[in-house]
Structure formats: C-alpha cells, structure tokens
Amino acid sequence: MILDSKIPAGPIAEKWTNHKFSSKLVNPANKRKYDVIVVGTGLAGASAAASLAELGYNVKAFCFQDSPRRAHSIAAQGGINAAKNYQNDGDSVYRLFYDTVKGGDYRAREANVYRLAEVSVNIIDQCVAQGVPFAREYGGLLANRSFGGAQVSRTFYARGQTGQQLLLGAYSALSRQVANGKVKLYPRTEMMDLVKIDGEAKGIVTRNLITGAIETHAAHAVLLCTGGYGNVFFLSTNAMGSNVTAAWRAHKRGAYFANPCYTQIHPTCIPVSGDHQSKLTLMSESLRNDGRVWVPRTKEMAEKLRSGGIKANDIPEEERDYYLERKYPSFGNLVPRDVASRNAKYVCDEGRGVNETGEAVFLDFRDAIKRDGEDNIRARYGNLFDMYQQITGENPYQVPMMIYPAVHYTMGGLWVDYNLMTTVPGLYALGEANFSDHGANRLGASALMQGLADGYFVIPYTLGDYLAKIGPAPVDSDNPEFAKVAGEVKERIEKILSINGSKTVDYFHKKLGKIMWNECGMARTAEGLQKAKKEIKALRDEFWKDVKVIGSNEELNQSLEKANRVADFLELGELMIDDAYNRNESCGGHFREEYQTPEGEALRDDENFAYVAAWKYMGDNEEEVLEKEPLEFENVKLTQRSYK
Amino acid sequence: MKLTIKVWRQKSATDKGGFVTYPLDGISKDMSFLEMMDVLNEQLSEKGEDPIHFDHDCREGICGMCSLYINGKPHGPLQTTTCQLHMRSFSDGETITIEPWRAAAFPVVKDLVVDRSAFDRIIQAGGYVSVNTGGVPDANEIPIPKVIADEAFDAATCIGCGACVAACKNASAMLFTSAKVSQLAMLPQGQVERKTRAEKMIAQMDAEGFGACTNTGACSAECPKGISLTNIARMNREYFSAAVSSENV
C-alpha cells in the first residue's frame, strides 16, 4: 500500500479551510441514521463523542474505568497551548505551528500541525463557554504562562490541574448528550477487537469487565481515542490501567502503527524508591525555573552520600557538579525535556546518582530560597512541594529534592491521514493514540491541545465526509464476521486462563518494562536493541507457557484484564525495538548513541530519515513490514537544535 | 513492617461477604497504601488465591477512582486519596481494617469495588452548561472577577471519589452535588440554567437514594480535595430560590 496522507493542496494557511469546504456533508435529517463508536473517554474521546452527538449521530462511548471522568487526561498538570496572542507578545498561529514542528525535531507532518495551531484558539473559547475555570488576572481576563520550547506566553492553565478541568468540561458535554439520549455510555467495558466487513471498520468486540460478557457492537465508523502506550515500560507516569490493547488489536486487523519508538521521557519525576514501585509521579517541569540540578562531582562522594556518610546539605560547593549549567550555559537547567533526561542518565551511569538505588539527581532550591525567600517559593510551587513531601516523606524546603526521568508520553501511535483515518477505512485514531502532530518530541502543554482539537474541531468534519460517502444503510450486526471475531476473543481469553502456570502477570510486565527501559529508553544502541528483541521474544514465549491468571472470565477479574493488556505490550515492545533499530539517527525522544554530535547531542539524518515509519502487521511472530511516508517541509526550515 | 490486614471480601454483588484476615510482612514505610495491597495481592496470586479487587487508576490523587475505607475513615487517616497515603502513616504490628465505601447508592460490585454510577447520573441531570461545540463567544469576551473564578475553581476540583458519601452517617451526596452546582452558579456561563440545574441535580440525587444532609461536616473534613461546606450552603440557597421563582420546572 502506498500511504496517502491526503494532505489538501494549496498554501498551508488555506488547507484546512479548503478541505472543510470540499468535504462532503451529511444532511441533518440523515445524521440520526448513523452509528459511531468512540473508544476511550479522555479529552479526545469525550470531546469527539459529545460533538458528534450534538450533530445528531448516535454515539456509543466506551471506557474501561467506572466513569468517563476517570480517563488519564485528568492527570495532566501544566496547561494547554493556544495561539490567542492575548499577551500581545508576538504569538500567532504560524508561530505555534513553527514551534511545534521544531520542538518535534522535524518529524511531524506540517499540514496537521498547522491545523492544530489553527483550531487551538477555538478550544479555549469552547472550554470557557462550558464553565472551565481557567486562571484569570485581576482584570477578569484569562492568564497565560510560558512553557518549554516557546518564547511567548501562550499556555492557558487551571492551577496545576489543567487536564482535570478540561476533562471535566468535556465530560460535562458528554453527560449532557447521555441525558439527551444521543450517547450511550459503556463504562467498565474494554474493547477487545475490531470487526471489519469487506475491509472497512464496522464494529468492535468488547468485554464487560463486571460480568465478563463478550459483546459485539456495530457502527458505521469506529474512533479509537485510547491514549498512549507508556505502560509498556511498566513504570511510567501513566495510570495503572492505561494500555495499548485497543490500538494494538486494530493494528493486527490492518491499521499501520507509526513511529512506535518515539517516547517522551520526562526529566522531573519522583525517583523509584524500591522494587515495590507501581507507578511514577511527575512533577511539573516548571520546577526547573528555580531549582538547580546537581550531583556530587566525584563517584566517591556520591558513594559516601548513598551510604549515609554525608548529607546533601553538607557537600561543599566545590564538590557539586551543576552539570546542566556547566554543559549548557545559555539554557542551563531549562534545556528541553529530552536533553535534561539524557544528562541525568549519564551522570547516574557514571556512578554519581544520589539515592539508594543510584538513580536520582538533586533538584535543589537552596539558592532560590536564599534569593527569593521561602514564602515566594511556596507561593510558586507549594502544591508540588507538598506532593513531594507526601510521597517521599522529605521536606524539600530543607533538603534538595531528588528527581529522575520517567516515561511520560508516547508520540508514536496509529498512523492516520489528514482526516485522522487509519489505514483501515472507517477506523479513526484521535489524541495520543495517533502519531501525527508531535513528531519525535512533544512540547509541554500540547497534548491537551491535540486531544481536544481532534475531538471538538477535526473529527466532526472529517468523519462526515466518510459517512456521506458510505451512505446511511444500517450496518448488518448479524454479519458472521461479528460472531467470528467474538469467538476469537473468547478463545484467546480461554487460552490465557488455561495456562495456569507459575508466574504472575506482574512478573512478566516488570521484566518487559526493565528490558524496554534499559535498551529502548533514554539512550539506545543497535547492539542493545538486538539483544532486547531476543529477550522480548523469549519473555513472550514464557508468558504464553507459564503465566498464572486466577479466576474465571465470568466475573470482575483484574488479573485477567491485566494479562490481556500485558500480552499486547509484549508484542508492541518488539515493534518499538524494531522501529528504534531501523531509525539510524537520533531525533527528539529517540536517541541512538551511535548518532550524536561531538558534544553528545542528537544528530538527525534528514537525508535518509525524514519520514514517518509506518509498520504493517504480517501475522503472529512474523516480522512487520515497514512503509515510509516521506515528510515534506515546505514552510519550516530544518536546523540542528542547539541549547549551548 | 509487619501488619495484619483485615479486609472485606465479597465475591459478587449478590454474595453476602465478610472480613478475611491476612498477615503481611516485609512492608516498607515508603510504599504507598496501594503498593502494600499490590504486595498482598501478588502473594495471594502466587498461592493461587483470588486477589483482592479494588478500584485504582492514576495513583497520583486526581482520577478519583481509589476508594478504600481504612480504619473507619474514607481514604484512611490523612485527608488525601488512598493512592497518596503511605505506609509511614501506620505503625509496625498494626491491624489495618479495609472496607468498601458503605452506602446504599454505591452497591458493592466485588470486594472493595463499588458502583458509583449514581454520581454520573447526577451530573447527567444538569451538571453542565448547554452549549454545543462551535459558535461560542471569544474566551475573553466575558471577564470574570478573579475571586469568583478562583472560588469556582475550588468547587471544580472535586474528583468524584465519593469519600463524602462514605464519611457521612446518612450517606448524603450533598457535598458532591453542591460542588458542581456551585461552580456553575458562580460563573456567568452557568447563569441561564442556574435554577433548573439545582432542581434537577437535587432531584436526581434524591432519586439515587442518597441520604439527607445534617450539616455535621464529616464530608468536608474527609474530602481529599478539601471541598468546602460553603458549597452545600450555596446549593441550599440555589435550591430555595429556584423553588420560589423558577420559570422552567
């Protein structure tokens, strides 16, 4: 298949307007004849489900949590970008577009990013109209702050819980449509597979997580708004339930998976405290505005620190290495996420880590407190300091915080064209579940923007075009394909339950996570990746021979849910490895040690790798096939990022 | 740490259920409460016993999914979510009693998992501003005084966990409902439907079987987000003023 991105012709600023005009429309009276399935109720899913229902389509919305309001978008802290230029500081749609393509290390599709920037302004209007309580100035107008990768203040926020407020806004719009009877909600229901009829997506198979019932749902189109796959690393800042299953099963039914190796590792997370750790907690990167990152200058001093022979505050100034300030004098502690993360790894690999596990660096507010006073620091970061203290039991006003990078977001995802349609006609992917807008690195405050852009302002137009073309004839829910796929789902569940081996699901998940983190995390090498591929294959074989899942299908069975998800992570992990191995360059969150500048920075190879790597599933245990979508840059000039 | 965990086990909604006691050793004080539960569950699984089911997801105190009633208090001894509670809040040798939320409107699904869909239905009854996507005014067209926006925000931080209901001797959902009613009553965007919203949400709340409010304040004292009792007072005002003047219902 030749990947057709369906980018509209014309100048970049006119593409979306022209495209909306040339898209077919569904007559208002006919919209009620169409059924649409939306899987996932985060920012992308809830906004899409609500907006499509408002238009008149019949929507079925699914989530695995007990309520749509729990989707992990709720945990986003920092804010949402929009090119409103309320600050009169030189922002524009074009600048937001440019910053996003550059921040993504020139691996995103220009036309999609431009549209994202264009509709960003509508998102803020929409959310305010819903009653989202954004931060305001004393004059009553909206406040902004600045974020990494931008020189303008374009980030709208609601204290440190912007994601929560935006999601509750979308959830309220969704709830209104549930009350109107236009959305039927299916909470505690997990998508297990995609059903295709004559090559087009026509429904899904689900498992009711309370009763275990395997059910089929037919529709004219299926939207996957199922988030990212960071939990392949076991430890990440994702919610415990976040998983790749819906996207992965769709992939196995023909949807290409794009750029799976692009993973964002966030530098300011609370370090792992022991083997019992179940998840990692992020702290806003705004902390790096005042905190200074350091480790002891020598390995010996670090060892003394780890064994309790000396306290952090007793280490004299000349024994401290403020490595970011030393290596990047102009950006200092505010280098982008990927650079900050990688350098933390380097110093810890040198044996200079500062906590018991040797995998932590200091983020020290001593000097900021001395300069600005404790009260001022409290006013800026009070809630983050409290959170840190609650989790670690240490007072960061008195001792330096300890931080370490953690997996946070996945830029890769299902390949979609300009209409957000995957390579399976009728199957769409929105939000973090698709790949299109962030290239190899996402800028802060852009995830919320993309999720809502896709759901509120893109899919209502692009889906209509497809639906108008296929016509409103009802989907035949008696088509044998539904029963066939449901049968396969049941078979797979029975297989998992029948293994009755000796190791728990978490055993496999943790092992997989370790392999991925060590070989496909912050720094990757061809050799390490090849080794990891073998290890994952072996682990997968072991899983299917020796996993132990207690209980039956016909009940609430959290072990079975986990087993289902981990089985898919075990396949996805290998594809991520393949993709990282194929990409013989470093870009954004993908850093191959073989490809770096003499100063140790990411070295892109635009000549050979300015493409989207889209992978086609070829069958169980078969090597996937790579298809390339070349990236053409007509507006943005490709340069080497430098933060010296 | 060595602990004794006394936990409510109930196979299904129709099962009678009862307490089961498990000894547990080797718990570190740095573990979160749910990580302690993970350790126990891992041990149960290894022995071939059904792990204890409980709701949890984000594990950073914001999704509102975790819902354990620990030693007689929702979310345990601290005013936080269960996932943000750490074992350093307990002492070595302690017996910890864990129950599900207890409220008629939150029926037990299994073990410690309850059905909180009643909260969704209360929001569906009117916890929104009726605007469709598109066609809304510019975000800065209506200035909102900062104090109002901040107070609306405080109400909006409710995570819908249900600790307020679990804490209340009457299992009242007034704090939850009033948080949403307040948020939208304070903002200019919520004015048009202000009266019907209060009436409809309260009607739904009653229909779900939540109890009455006697202003004892246990809900607010146990709320992990510190939602203020003022919201209940405001909702009562909204409700009475709607009752005497509503032109819609």
UniProtKB/TrEMBL annotation, chain A:
Residues 522-573 form a coiled coil. It comes from the Bacteria. Residues 509-643 form the Fumarate reductase/succinate dehydrogenase flavoprotein-like C-terminal domain. Residues 35-448 form the FAD-dependent oxidoreductase 2 FAD-binding domain. The keyword Flavoprotein applies. Keywords: Coiled coil, Flavoprotein, Oxidoreductase. Its cofactor is FAD. InterPro entries: FAD-dep_OxRdtase_2_FAD-bd, FAD/NAD-bd_sf, Fum_R/Succ_DH_flav-like_C_sf, Fum_Rdtase/Succ_DH_flav-like_C, SdhA/FrdA/AprA, Succ_DH/Fum_Rdt_flav_su, Succ_DH/fumarate_Rdtase_cat_sf. PANTHER family: SUCCINATE DEHYDROGENASE 2 FLAVOPROTEIN SUBUNIT, SUCCINATE DEHYDROGENASE FLAVOPROTEIN SUBUNIT. This is Fumarate reductase/succinate dehydrogenase flavoprotein subunit. It comes from Algoriphagus sediminis. The lineage of its organism: Bacteria, Pseudomonadati, Bacteroidota, Cytophagia, Cytophagales.
Automatic annotation (TrEMBL), chain B:
Residues 149-179 form the 4Fe-4S ferredoxin-type domain. Its cofactor is [3Fe-4S] cluster; [2Fe-2S] cluster. It comes from the Bacteria. It holds the Pfam family Fer2_3. NCBIfam families: PRK07570.1. Belongs to the succinate dehydrogenase/fumarate reductase iron-sulfur protein family. This is Succinate dehydrogenase/fumarate reductase iron-sulfur subunit.
